[in-house]
Amino acid sequence: MHRRSVLKLGLGASALALLTSACSSDTPGADGWNAGDLQHILPLVSHRAFNIKLSFRRPQKSPPLLLVGERKVKGQQQDSNGRFWSFRVDQLSPNTEYNLQLQSTAGLALCDDWSLKTFPAPDDQPEQLKVISYTCAGGPDLPVFPGNRDGFKPAAYRAKLFQLMLDKKPDLVVANGDHIYWDYRSWEANRDGVLGKMAAKFFLKAWAGTFTENQAVIGTANEDVLTSVGDEQIAKIYGVAFRSTPVFFITDDHDYFENDDATPELVTFPPRSFNQELRNSLQRLYFPEYIVEENLESHFPGQIEARGVKLSTHFGQVRYGELFSGLLYDCGGQLSIQGDSSGLVPPVVESWLTENTQREDSRHLVHFPSHPVGWSAGKWREWYPDVLQSTGTLLAPIERDEQGNKFMWQRGWWLQHQRLLKTLSAQKKRRAMVISGDLHLLGAGRIDHSAELDFTANPIHTVLSGPVGIGMLGWLSNARGLAAKAPADISIEETMSPVEQNGFTVLCFSGNTCAVELYACPKGYVPPENLTLSKMHNFQLS
Question: Any residues with CB less than 8 A from the CB of 34 and at least 6 apart, and which?
Answer without folding.
Answer: 111, 112
